[in-house]
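Aim 2 progress update. The chain analyzed this quarter is reproduced below.
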Amino acid sequence: MAYRCHRAWKGRSIWNEEQSRKARKARGRAQDRVSGPLGKPPSIEWLHTTELSVDESYQRSIDNEGSRRLIASIAANFDWRLCAPLVVSRRPDGLKVIIDGQHRWSAAMRRGDLPHLPCCLFTYDSPEDEARMFIVANRARKPMNRLDDFHAALAAADEDAMEIQRLVSEAGLQMARNTSSTAWKAGEVAFTSSIAAALRRHGPAIVSAALTSIAEAYERRPLTYGASIFGALIKLFANPPENFDPDDLVPTLRRFDMALLGEIVKGLSGGDSRAVAVHSAIVETLSPLKHAESAALL
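Predicted structure tokens:
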């Protein structure tokens, strides 16, 4: 028994040594592929707002309506939890030049009660080097897409996002996480802006009816043209045609597969124009169906 235990322990020891050797080798390969860090580490300091300045030769102008609105919003709703340290260049002549954080600085100056701001101070070789870093910092940023924004709002318990989530879930659908239609799974919807707009204009009952109809008609199929269908159904439920019977809608929608919908909206730009085209096609299909049903009753 002791001999078998010794052999088992020895086997595990050899296996662990082999795994450690492989891990060290993998780390070595990774280090070979990574170059050393560039530049010098920054210092983190609280600087008085009057010590800071901008270099207008490369810094974006804030003399425009969009920047003025952003600065006013930051100033009116200033939150330290959203104030990341400004990226600042410490020049040889003593100037402290903002590379990133101009709007936060301008908002603090506008308020007047925030004399100091947290700053990461770097040393650059020249103003040209600062400008290069300004370009790299701004080009490297990935803007939030509409789905990132929605899921973040949902996590923050935003009332509008929670209402949209409730309606989508109750219809038997779910919110997508990817904006690429090729990545959507069956039952995933991505048209958060359309749902929000329809909620504001028509209320939850009509939005719920449209989403439920989509879920029933396109069960187990990716909703490549879901936004166009949703827009068309909102128009239909908001202004139903004469003798409209909701029970006829799902069978009618099943006649419009994604390939046919793609042909209907082909060449059209803009969500509303696509929704109008799909709406017209649905209404045209509903009318003969209703006439056929009426004739059968005679």
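The longest strand covers residues 116-122. Residues 2-33 form the longest helix (32 residues). These observations will guide the mutagenesis experiments scheduled for the next reporting period.
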